[in-house]
## 1
Amino acid sequence: MVNVTKEESKFEVLKPDVYVAEYKGCQETQILNKKTNEMDRVLKHYWEVVSPSGVKIELNEISDTKMTGKNKLNAIIEALVGKEIPNKETINTDTLVGKKARLTVKNKKVGEAIYNVITDHLAV
């Protein structure tokens, strides 16, 4: 688990591109499932990239808590270890902290706000 404070990183809208990012860890949390109106357990993953202007930017994303073959958690872990993970293999995400992956980042506009969205995970 990682504790991230606002002083450690800043927010900046990144230009859509592929960025090398350092994995800072993940923590289990709950989010509201809008379809079932129930709370779902998820993992919130934290990444750090350096913007073209030299600012450290924190990115985060949500995934399932278990690898199911080709879900987002599989994509994150496979990008960090650089290989496909066989079914039923267990990976401790704490061992991945500090590793790097290439993230495809796009922008999503919600109202007047623009957010960085990770759309793909690639090995370095």
## 2
Amino acid sequence: MAFVPQPLLHVAEKLGVPAARVIPYGRDLAKLDQEVVAGRDAKKGKLVLVSAITPTPAGEGKTTTSIGLADALSHLGEKACLALREPSLGPCFGVKGGGTGGGRAQLTPSDRINLHCTGDFHAISSAHNLIAAVIDNHIHFRTDLNLDLRRVMWPRVIDMNDRSLRDIVLGLGGRSQGMPREGGFDITAASELMAILCLADDVGDLRARIDRIVIGYDRKGNPVHAAKLGITGAVLALMREALLPNLAQTLYGTPALVHGGPFANIAHGCNSVIATRTAMSLADWTVTEAGFGFDLGAEKFFDIVARTAGLDVDVVVLVASARALKMHGGVALADLEKPDPAAVERGLPNLHKHLENEELIKGAAVVALNRMASDTDEEIDVVRKACEQRGVTLAVCEHYAHGPEGALDLARAVIERSKRGAPKFRPIYPLEAPITEKIRAVATKIYGADDIVLGRDAERDLRDIEKLGYGHLPICMAKTQSSLSDDPALRGRPKDFKLNVQGLYVNGGAGFIVVLTGEIIRMPGLPKQPRAEHIDLDREGKIVGLV
């Protein structure tokens, strides 16, 4: 079946957005202008948060499920809109591949969205690196900022996996080339400016947050804020259009706002508050997702995004697959095609832990089980019985193969669950708690750790942060996505472990404290055989091998 995209103005019309408020970026992407962007007081439709069990190479299909659910809601006559993150070039050319869904549950144009979209990532990279360049300019001219070269906290960024750039030496080549010092690169998705874009209410809030960025410390140990650089206006100018949400559509014409793209393992992992609020103001159902498993993106959605933005959700969809559960049950990737209900059973503790976490925070879950071609009825029944025992609705989904029709059971389950209502979300920790208690609460309640262990650097960082008065901020845990623990090799539901905290630093503009655990890094590397080897441009000018 060939899919013909609907005219984008027709897609906007489904949301009640007039053509005059649509800013085209070619024929199949657009931005919504400032007059459409919703504030805190806008009408709010229902919000569905899609999360998942701990990811495995077998795949769970969180983005595909989000798209399939929105299409199915539209198919049932509901007014639905997606609010999703933009893909990063790093995963597209690295391990994961594209981030626009798959099969018959995809965003379109998937190639443009995956590669550059409307240029938001490039704008954020440029704005971030402008700050970095001006910092080094102050160092070169020895201005009155009196920055301590050993405590400059603002790296450079690039939207690509490149391990060689993690740690570098700047300013080589003589006196005219700047002051030599150690530095490095993060991936753009980990930039504080990305987090700020995704958490800001509007341009005024964006300006204030940029001013509050801690770029480093002076020789007396006092924080130096970005406002001192005098370039906030220039940073805003570079980000002007990036602040506006991007309009795209699914293969079936369901509107999608695609905006922002922080990773949930090294950042807060949710799309922009602006896009979510705007979707909620325009549609009766907004489907959004939080990155990786519930322990990462969803915890941060509730403890950071929902708390600061005044949002809450009506239904949580927890995505799983029998294949992924088999991997959590000890089956190797190469053996997943073989039927093994016992391995699914052994992997269930991971699903149970994520459901426990959802019940702890919200208590409005529906489980979406992505059925794949090799799954047997016996394997599906193992998951069905487990959900029945917990009193949680299970919807078996086949939207990848069948589009909206394959997710109708999920859509009906979501609608039914929303009718029952749910309590307001419950944060895992109070903001006034000491930082160590916030970390311990997430580690023990969400990850299942026995306790936390602070390294020497983390203890020093903790003292400095509390001394400077940032202890009231929420925490953003940077942890491997491959395990509930900080050890990526531990699948299933790890027990009898302690969470190792290696460092902390302040994202003053974003408004949270980043907590580095295990061996987490903020600049991924490419695998031995990156997906870039399979991407090409065919004779008709079409990009192939990306999704």
## 3
Amino acid sequence: MMTPFDKLRVTRWLRVTLMAFALALALPQVTAAKVLPMEDAMGVIDVVHAHLPNSGDLDVNLVGEPPYAIAWWSAEKGHAGGSALEKKVGKNWTLVKMISGTFADASSLEALGVPASQANALIADLHRH
């Protein structure tokens, strides 16, 4: 038989559990891309430099969700701004698509073969920068 004290503890536990559940549903789901190891980051940047002439001094930023990464750069030093979607195949990074501007949404990445969960994480991380 439950004492009044036991009923109070159960009621509090239920209230806290329901509040935590409601809060979890109310908060937007935040996904973030993973941090690439230095070797991979350098590989991604090397692919950009290989496809853009005279880009050795270009400031390239990136986000990654292996085996995919997005590199982007601003218009500077005679170059237009742009973005590159890359995929790691074996030990090497390869160019999937290079565009002027940025990848707008996850569906644009999905159309290029990136799985939805990885596309969402990449775009979420892009928007944080």
